[in-house]
Amino acid sequence: MKYPFFASFIIFGFLFSFSLKKRTKTEGKYAENFWEREREADSTRRKSLDNLDYIAVPLNELPMDTLAGLPEVQEFHARLRELSEKKIVNFAGYSNTELKLTYGAPNINLLSDYDQNFEDLITLLQEWACFLLQNWGESAHACPEEERKQAAKTVLAYAVSIGSDIAASYERLIKLYLESGEQDKISALREKAENLRSLSKGRILTMIDEAG
Fold first, then answer.
1. CB proximity list for 173: less than 8 A, separation 6 or greater
2. Of 207, 117, 110, 126, nearest to 160 (Cα)?
3. Are 189 and 170 in contact (CB under 8 A)?
4. Radius of gyration of the chain (CA)
5. Contacting residues for 182 by C-beta, under 8 A, at least 6 apart
């Protein structure tokens, strides 16, 4: 009775060993390809950055007047103006290796700065919109709720238009569109989300589909 069990154990051990070796070989090949690609990227010569899709912040199209008397909003505006003077490019979802292969290894620090400026911008827009949507009650700086919601919609719509991958921005914008009876604008959000390369893409698409 023990022999069949012993034989099964040996077969299992053989299969496990074979599977482990195969996995190790696959991982080794992956690592080899990765480092080969990285070596190629590091040797890629500098290329012109003139044709990058730079983002220009349209200060005159954003709701700069809404709650403008509040120190917090003035801080948002100051940070926005500061960012508007920097070079901003959306590289969300692109690895450093891809960037070096495309634009040259010597440019990687500049490209990282441009991408960080983009991250700072979409984060700022999200924070600004959330602040606008707070309930200000009878505050001396209060303005009509509808005005604040419209301002927040403008800010979030701009964030989405430049490729924000912050799921909360989509979530709040969808809610505002539903509240104002603008369901037709939700389909346009899907078109933007389809072009995202980040991990939040699936979650965002699910939110859009459920809202539609």
1. 153, 156, 157, 160, 189
2. 126
3. yes
4. 25
5. none
